[in-house]
Amino acid sequence: MNLNLDFSFYNWDLIQNFIIKGLVFSVMLTIVATLGGILFGTLLALMRLSGKKILVVPATIYVNGMRSVPLVMVILWFFLLVPLLIGKPIGAEMSAVITFVAFEAAYFSEIMRAGIQSIPRGQVYAGQAVGMTYGQNMRLVVLPQAFRNMLPVLLTQTIILFQDTSLVYAIGAYDMLKGFEVAGKNFGRPVEAYLAAAVLYFIICFTLSWFVKRLHKKIAIIR
């Protein structure tokens, strides 16, 4: 079967007008969702480890609930239902940002919980012995070590998050995949556009994975 693939229509103008705009949004969404997910995920992890039922129960329900639903469904629910509740649309891009932060917080929560639990109890007891409160102990002793230990896992989850940004295509947000799709339709070359998108996703994710492996080796040496 001859597909008659032709990539000659790719040039700098096409990349600048279609691809870069989507790539910028995908990267921005990844960064915001990672930072927001780590922040709220850490709070959820602390709630689950607090031992107080009033904090443990809602945090557990939230984390398990989010982790049990496909991300694309959460994106669609938020995009379609929230405007009905508040009476006005909030836009595909804003919906994507809020949804990703809320969804990724559940996954980063489990990573941070594992990181916190990996810290030897002797470290916690040492902090208590010098008069630190629970908050001071977590902020100054436990969390810095947990972040260091979990950094490769956090970055791996960030790579997965970047791949998942292509799901905002379902609500019409202009991400990198959307940029390739629009370019392919405009030039009548959808197959070449999707192939090029797959190659670019692979290059970005493979490069980041290689960096994470190197970082993991350095952290292992430090330990």
Automatic annotation (TrEMBL):
Family per record: Belongs to the binding-protein-dependent transport system permease family. HisMQ subfamily.
Taxonomic superkingdom: Bacteria
Protein's name in the database: Amino acid ABC transporter permease
Keywords: Cell membrane, Membrane, Transmembrane, Transmembrane helix, Transport
Chain ranges passing through the membrane: 20-47, 68-86, 92-109, 153-174, 194-212
InterPro entries: AA_ABC_transptr_permease_3TM, ArtM/GltK/GlnP/TcyL/YhdX-like, MetI-like, MetI-like_sf
ABC transmembrane type-1 domain segment(s): 23-212
Keyword Transmembrane helix: yes
Membrane-related topology note: Multi-pass membrane protein
Intracellular or extracellular location(s): Cell inner membrane; Cell membrane
Matches recorded under SUPFAM superfamilies: MetI-like
